[in-house]
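Slides due. Your pick:
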Amino acid sequence: MTGLAGSMRWNKYILGLFVAGIMSILLPPLCPAQEKKPAIMIKADDFEGAIFPEGFRWFVPVKNASAWTPEKKDIVLAEGLVKDFLKHHEPDNAYYRECVPKILNALSRYKRQYAGFIDKNGEKNVFINFFIPASHIVDWDKRMVFVCDGGFHYFRITVNLSRKQCFDLSINGVA
């Protein structure tokens, strides 16, 4: 049995290497946030971020939308709308009511990732991913940062620049 069991372990090992090899070939083109064009870095007195240009592969959060590259003026407008939204937002959910003031207090500490899209109505939107830098977050200027849990240190929001409205606020939970 030792020979057969050893052979089966070896086969599983080879199969695992084969699957890993295939995944390393197939997954990069399928991953939503792989670098295609370099991010455009933006820095102001109260925020710093990476604008992912139109050719950057990422997910578009709505159906029937197309990618678009926001300009600095778009980001400045979006930042103002987000700050105003957070100041006046009254969440229904107790967890969000607890998190929003903490987010506002720490807003300048968050790094941002911006990705633009034009929705089915032809309106320009900016998806903004916020996160407080941590040692495990690398290459944030090359790929979207998505983290499970982490609480208010990680949140996302979409800004419709045409209507000057924020929507789809999503704050990570805690484990």
Remarks:
- The chain has three helices and seven strands.
- The beta strands are 40-43, 48-52, 66-68, 111-118, 124-131, 154-160, 165-171.
- The helical segments are 2-30, 72-88, 94-106.
- The CA atoms of residues 148 and 155 lie 11 Å apart.
